[in-house]
Amino acid sequence: MKTNYKSDDELIFSLPDYITGRDLEKNIREQIEERLKVDNLFYAEYIKIMDTYEYMKGVETDKAPDNYFSSLLPKINERIESNRMQKSLWHYIIGSWKIAVPALTVILLIMIFNKSDKIEHINVVPEFKEQALMLPADSNGKNSNEVINNIGSKVSESTENTNRETVTAPVKQKNVKVSNEENTAVLNESLFGETEEEDEFYYEDEFHNLNENEQNELINNLKNTKF
Amino acid sequence: MYITENYLNLKLNLESSDNELITGFLNGENTAFNYIVLKYQKRIYSVIRKMVQNHDDADDITQEVFVKLYGSLKNFRGESALFTYLYKIAVNFSLNHIKKNKINRDKTVQVENIQEISSHDKNYDTVYDDDMKSRYISDAVAGLPEQQKLVFSLKFYDELTYNEISKILDKPIGTLKANYFHAFNKIREHFEKNKIQKSL
Prior knowledge:
The structure holds two protein chains of two kinds. Chain A is mainly alpha-helical. Chain A is 67% helix and 4% strand. Chain A contains ten helices and two strands; from the N terminus they run H-H-H-H-H-H-H-H-E-E-H-H. The termini of chain A are far apart. Chain B is mainly α. Chain B has nine helices and no strands. Chain B has helices at residues 18-26, 30-52, 55-72, 82-101, 105-119, 130-142, 146-157, 162-169, 173-193. The radius of gyration of chain B is 20 Å and the shape is elongated. The N and C termini of chain B lie far apart (54 Å). Chains A and B meet through helix 1, helix 2, helix 4 and helix 5 of A and helix 2, helix 3, helix 6, helix 7 and helix 9 of B.
């Protein structure tokens, strides 16, 4: 509804207070009374608000359930107490963190250092595969490097399978030693000498120490066994 | 500022002034806070209830308001009246609750009313018993925009002055007067729409 009250917002907005008789300055009250006498639209607005006010006056709305207010205070005190307990627990947790945080940091650092040691160890072992095993040619003219590399590849395959074992028990690697500086490999330590070649010399010495009969007998025995 | 020399001579009761109760509280008198609760619980509950339109929520928020007061009372400087301070907490908590739960009462209120009125259509003149009237008014107020609802509740039901409401809501008095007037008009429109008020 459009009215000509625009310039008189103060008056129309004060109508509810004029009706309730509260919180209204004297001069505004007088102005409203003057206006009601001469302005029909203003008067109509006054009647509408008056009717609404009269309808609502004295009616209690949104009542609380019976006995609600008699039980409210204990509930509030209970909540205050529980808040206080929570707060003290929180302070306790905050306090214990002052010890827990440095302790956890130290433990974490120790764990990180231990782990990095293990990782270093694991990284060393696979290098074996990349080593070219070099040996001088043997007495038969066969390139020993080929033989050794074949053996080496077999050994490295088995080494790969046992890498994890190697990490935990590096002593087992004693049978396979790789020297990067000399590029030589020493495989399968012998029971008698240091190497198989030394074993061969050992048998030859033993043979020469025998007399002629014994040597012939040994040769005959070997021929008979088709060794 | 509330600690007085002759505090020990104070006898606290429900008639004690706010200053006396706060002084008692700051001096470790546990009953002082209880008296504050008993003094304001109905008014605070009423304001909150009109905002949230649900007893359980109103109960929860009312408790929270007094718990908050308990925690902040030791820092209370007395720059505003205690009840203004309490109302402010209540209004803020209610508005936060409404925002959080995105309560949109407008639609539900209208649907409920249409159903109820239609069932009484033949003789709605006789509907004016207090309980029904209370329900219709409550629904009409609940359908107001938040700001108007607050102003209407504080002015119409709690009979606070514009100055007091202005301190609680941090709004200029002119705005509050406009809110109050528009709230009346919207309530009237609600009644007209639902044929509740015969004379309208």
